[in-house]
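explain this:

___
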Amino acid sequence: MSVEDQRTEVQRILQSPEFRRAPKLQRFLELVCDYHFQNRSAEINEYVIATVAFGKGPDFEPGKDSLVRVQAREVRRRLREYYQNEGKSSRLTMDIPIGHYTPVFTQVEDAAARAAPARRQPTLRSAWLVLAGTVLACAALLVAADHERRLLIRTASAAGRNAAPVSASVGGLWNRFLDSDVATVLVVSNPEVKGCADERSAAAGCPDEYTGMGEAVAIHLITSLFRPAKQTLIVKPSRIVTADDVKRYNLILVGGKSVNVWTRRLGADLSLAEPNMPPEYQTVLDTKTGQVTKDRAIVALRKYPATGRWVLFLWGRHSQGTHAAAEASTDDRFLAQLKWPGAPFPESFHVLVSVNVNDGIPQRPVPVMLHVP
């Protein structure tokens, strides 16, 4: 079995119902599998898992705290459930044997084929009947397929005629992704809900993550750009992004940069708290209701030096700011206001964005400050 097959199986497991809504177990699996793929399994232990995957401090003592062992048992139980249900047809299985934390992958042989009883050889007459039936079925399928192909061509042509062309300003930014020879991962921030970090609260049914309305709008705006371009766009919540995603794909980070351990370092120099922040860039809350009436955001583009892949940051102080950043990045009028020294769109820049918010709805975003290295 190849390493790529193993990585694919891990991603299927992480997206399965058994793990999709269990971020702690996902982080556990991501960490031990990442060490496995880097040939560093000998380094993995309870202390590493507790501090890296679960955020425990350096004073964590495995002998006194059974957190990792409890989570490992739950991971093994859910792996068994996965292979009894959604993963029962998989040709590859993963397990974490009791006693250590190194994942073990096993190739599954086709037991059904081995166990199938030998069939009697068909008679000549039955063979001709089977052949005639096959020919008729194939002919019917070909006719149906041709009809479907013609229908799809007409539909695609109509969609192409109705799709609005990307403007020069929008294309100057987004063609880096739309014309790329690699896919793009749209990373949607889903931070923990305050008050749900306590495991007892989570066990009582308290949700432990959320995605705001601004992030949802951003998904719509960005997928609308990718759809007519027929470019691959993979949407992932930030908690299940892996180091392999960062290495292989272009990235669009929506709603924040520091939720995921693998993406935190990509924008270490970017901040919503600018040192010389102009007054119009402030976030303002209504003194009576506490609701946001003005928010701030960042739109930033750069190449990740280690891989040469493109990274786009779109996030605000609140979800309304994230909405404004996504709208600004896809709005011809906003982008046309940016004056670039030299080329229409440099390979690296970031622009500060201000937006007024009325009754929770962001208005038109306004550029405040532009930085070009």
